[in-house]
Amino acid sequence: MKLLMSSGRTPEQGAQLYYKDSESYSRETSYCFLNPMDAMEIGVEDGEHVLIESTAGKTVFSVRESPETPEGVAYLPCGPYANFILHEFTHSTGAPDFKGVPVEVTQTELPLQSAWDLMEELGGRRYKIPTGTIIPDLEQGEKVLKNHACPLCGCLCDDIELHIADGIVTDVVNGCLLCAGKFRSHGRMAVPIRREGDDWKETSFDEAIKTAAEMFANAKRPLFYGWSGTSTEAMHIGLEIAEEIGAVMDNCSSECHGPTIMAVQEVGHPGCTLGQVKNRADVLVYWGCNPIAAHPRHLSRYSTYSTGAFRPEGRADRTVIVVDIRESETAKLADIFIQVKPGGDYALFNALRAIVRGERDVIPDTVAGVERSVLFKVADILLNAKFGAFFTGIGLTQSRGKYKNVRAGIELVDELNRHTKYTLTPLRGHWNVDGTNQMFSLAAGYPYAVDYSRGIVHYNPGETSGVDILAKHEADAVMIIGTDLGAHFPRETVAHLARINTVVIDPFISLSTAIAKLHIPVASVGLDAEGTAYRLDGVPIHVRKAFTSGMPSDEVVLTRLLEEIKKIKEERK
Ligand SMILES: Nc1nc2c(c(=O)[nH]1)N[C@H]1C(S)=C(S)[C@@H](COP(=O)(O)OP(=O)(O)OC[C@H]3O[C@@H](n4cnc5c(=O)[nH]c(N)nc54)[C@H](O)[C@@H]3O)O[C@H]1N2
Ligand SMILES: Nc1nc2c(c(=O)[nH]1)N[C@H]1C(S)=C(S)[C@@H](COP(=O)(O)OP(=O)(O)OC[C@H]3O[C@@H](n4cnc5c(=O)[nH]c(N)nc54)[C@H](O)[C@@H]3O)O[C@H]1N2
Ligand code: SF4
Ligand SMILES: [Mo]
């Protein structure tokens, strides 16, 4: 049966992000959510398997019947299985079609593969952390930390209470499932490893850094990608190395809210802090985002359910509108849920804009699957707000239309601002992805996709962005830092990473470990390292250490790497 593949966050997939080597991660990311009518037509029931095939590839998924998924859509959790069948084209935007690829879905008796199997099929090699591995020189003793920041999603909640015994987090208070998953993960690596044929060999930090320096100094088209999972200070050193060797420096916003940035560059951005939303917003619109799964405490801490100076009754003082292609966890909590056809947002934004302008006559009976009467009702609610806040997600940036969707959203907000007060805030993904754009802009003048190869900065998303450079097989040495491309990049780009000199700098084992030539473990910001991060609304927050250890931080490893690269260049003069 022909369906449209769409992929995104689930609460369970998010809780497993720090257990990528486990069976539970493979299980949670290999589901295929199908409308029961489609499942019946394909001839499968809950728990049975389907083979999903696209022009990029095919693999097996486990069926989960879900009435929330519209007919015609196969909804997949974000992860290695979805990416195994995703193509690498970005249509000159830097962001692949994570939401909206035609696929063929058929019943199959084939078994499910594990995430490691998928990496090996693309040329990688699985790795197992040796049993008994311990992080060196862990701080001993028991303590309780209050007001700790959570380094997981863009909410960057800084009210977490951690209970710690001998460098192990034993309890996480206030944090959501995702937060607890990170603080309680056991997937830390202690020693650098390098790939030798089909084997992994342990190596010293000195040797590993020297090898990485050689790889990057000898590369024709080096790419440093990620950064949203580390400190802003580390990014600064990364930018210095990139400038030194003429590398491309790109960050996760490329594949995520990069299109939002492109829209903001075109038409500006009426933003505000989350504090303003908490204290003032009486109408909240979540468009193409699902914070219950992806920013689990957003609604309770900053928006829908929070009480504020001018919203003392919290939820009762606010009207909540959700626009999504399926009845997401967040949609279930809305006063009004608008189910848009996949890729229909551009039309919907413009229809609402026309209504707000007073042009009700031009609206057809339905727009992108939404009835005219519903649009009129929603427009009236929007117009009657005292302070309205739009939150936009990657349902807009990764579906057809990409940055033009966001542009249309901003233009609707602009129109509404002629009547009352409105803001728009992208629900930025990682705890420090906003920091990448801040630091890249500060140091290089552009927020992402920065190419130093010409000796001056060149910025052109779609050309100088990570996915595109890998898709064109340009990169010959890649640093993966604070991101996991093995799990999250489209199939062909992962296969390319497995062929070239890929170096992973990450405190945890990840699927990128499998496709690397070298993995250098580091201290983890918020656990045994500290640094500055920017919350999704651009507010900088200092992320403290929870305990000390003998692991070098990203900053230490990158500083050493820069020294080694300079030495190599000096010797060649
Ligand atoms: N659990 C969990 N949480 C995370 C992460 C994680 O991996 N797991 N990652 C973090 C990151 S990096 C990010 S960027 C954020 C992302 O957070 P969100 O922006 O919330 O991300 P998604 O769940 O991918 O997509 C949001 C919604 O878009 C809908 N959608 C799909 N296509 C369309 C469309 O055409 N139109 C509209 N209007 N909606 C559409 C999907 O049904 C989905 O409910 O989450 C962060 N938090
Ligand atoms: N199919 C599909 N694929 C998608 C998406 C989708 O919706 N569908 N969404 C895309 C989006 S928006 C994004 S942003 C990506 C997900 O983005 P990724 O960046 O791949 O997300 P994570 O897997 O959380 O990877 C974060 C990495 O940072 C590491 N890390 C944590 N702390 C530190 C630290 O202090 N230092 C260093 N060096 N590393 C650290 C973690 O161990 C982990 O390996 O996925 C993209 N891929
Ligand atoms: S909402 Fe985000 S920042 Fe807050 S505790 Fe959960 S994962 Fe951490
Ligand atoms: Mo993201």
TrEMBL record:
**Which InterPro entries does the record cross-reference, listed alphabetically?**
Asp_de-COase-like_dom_sf (IPR009010), Formylmethanofuran_DH_bsu (IPR016457), MoPterin_dinucl-bd_dom (IPR006657), Mopterin_OxRdtase (IPR006656), Prok_molybdopt-oxidoreductase (IPR050123)
Tell me which SUPFAM superfamilies the record gives: ADC-like (SSF50692), Formate dehydrogenase/DMSO reductase, domains 1-3 (SSF53706)
**Where's the Molybdopterin oxidoreductase domain?**
188-353
Q: What class of enzyme is it?
A: oxidoreductase
Metal-binding among keywords:
yes
Q: Which residues form the Molybdopterin dinucleotide-binding domain?
A: 3-102
A single Gene Ontology biological process assigned to it is: respiratory electron transport chain
Any one annotated GO CC term: membrane
GO MF entry, a single one: formylmethanofuran dehydrogenase activity
Task: List the Pfam families hit by this protein, alphabetically.
Answer: Molybdopterin (PF00384), Molydop_binding (PF01568)
Keyword Metal-binding carried by entry: yes
Superkingdom: Archaea
Q: What is its EC number?
A: 1.9.6.1
> Which parts of the chain are coiled coil?
none
Which keywords has UniProt assigned to this entry? Iron, Iron-sulfur, Metal-binding, Oxidoreductase
Q: Which PANTHER family match?
A: FORMATE DEHYDROGENASE H, RESPIRATORY NITRATE REDUCTASE
Which NCBIfam families does the entry mention? one_C_dehyd_B
Entry protein name: Periplasmic nitrate reductase
The gene that this protein is the product of is napA
